[in-house]
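Write out the 3D structure for:
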Amino acid sequence: MAGIVLCGGNGTSHSAVRLFVSCCKSRRGTLNSHLSLFSERPSNTIVSPVGAGWYCRATGVRFASRLAGGRTADSRLRNNTLAAAGAAIVAGFMAGFCHFQKAEMASRTAKDKEGEREILEKCKGFMAAPVTDIEVLQQKKGDMSARMEILIMETQAAFCRALEEVDGGKFKVDRWQRKEGGGGISCVVQGGKVFEKAGVNVSVVFGNLPEEAARQMRSRGKVLKGKDGKLPFCAMGVSSVIHPHNPHIPTMHFNYRYFEIEQEDGSKQWWFGGGTDLTPVYINQDDAAHFHGSLKEACDRHHAQYYPDFKKWCDKYFYIRHRGETRGIGGIFFDDLDQPTQEEAFSFVKSCADAVVPCYLPIVRKHLNDSFSTAQKDWQQVRRGRYVEFNLVYDRGVKFGLATPGSRIESILMSLPLTARWEYMHEPPKGSQEAEMLEVLRNPKDWV
């Protein structure tokens, strides 16, 4: 079709061109390639030496020229011919354009089906069916809420299977529903070979934000404008706490979550939060360096400042103020992450979630056969008491869960150890390993 020219004095052909241009506006690249066909003298057009007209090789039609110095005797025939040619050309363009549209739609349909099959295959590897119906996740596969739910389900399954391989036991999978909206999947092993208690929970809840929860968020600077006193919300996350038998294997916690709130004007506020932290009973420099190094590597893929900032935030957050000590040796912690873009924030959270197994399981395997004394086990119990104090007094997730109607208390308090100990006025002997541990907790340090 190269070299076809639409011109002439008849308005019909120009209208046809305008129709074609209008239809093609949404496909600018396609339009631009076709607009090169509309020129007054294309390369394959022969202009008569006497200016009486021009001849188009592509159509074999001779047209009278406006430059001939006046109207020809058969101008009406010329105009009708132009109109017919213009209409035919546009019809051809439109047929090709429609064919292009159909091909593109078929391509999108194929991609949609491929995306739905991918979601279905992922779901087969989860510890249980996702909280949201699979068909709904397939329909909303591009929405962040659907993508985040798939990520937390994948994280739960990967971590549970890694722990099962080490422990030899199986997680009890417990599915629960919340009458106000949503539910969750709790995976817990208790009294295992390696882990005294370990839980990996997923929750996906929605409804109207309770006033106590809204008050907590406003205290962090959130500006929340509800309609008729209501704030529709959607929250989801994966959370885990691991309490090993052996005091030389550290306790580990991680949590990654996503929050959406719909405001009175229909707009949505969204943010991500979470972190991973380690709570050893005895300090091991190599373990600390490996743990923090793995998290730093995950952070550095996205921003050089993430690790130092989120490491400091973690030390500050997991601080037991009434004891004057941190809960453990930290890791990373962040909240209200809503920049630079939603896609980049999600990608960062995914990197952190993917780092959970490699940052912790090598430490577990390293100390599987370490021997320990009764005194060392007692010190572990005392440190667990501190863990309980922080979770019940300060932890934001526990407080949010307890303030949310319909929350599952068993899943919220899953983070607490099976056993703990509180000794009156306990102070470890100076120069002991226990005193060394306490010194680190009272004065957090850099590990990488």
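The radius of gyration is 34 Å.
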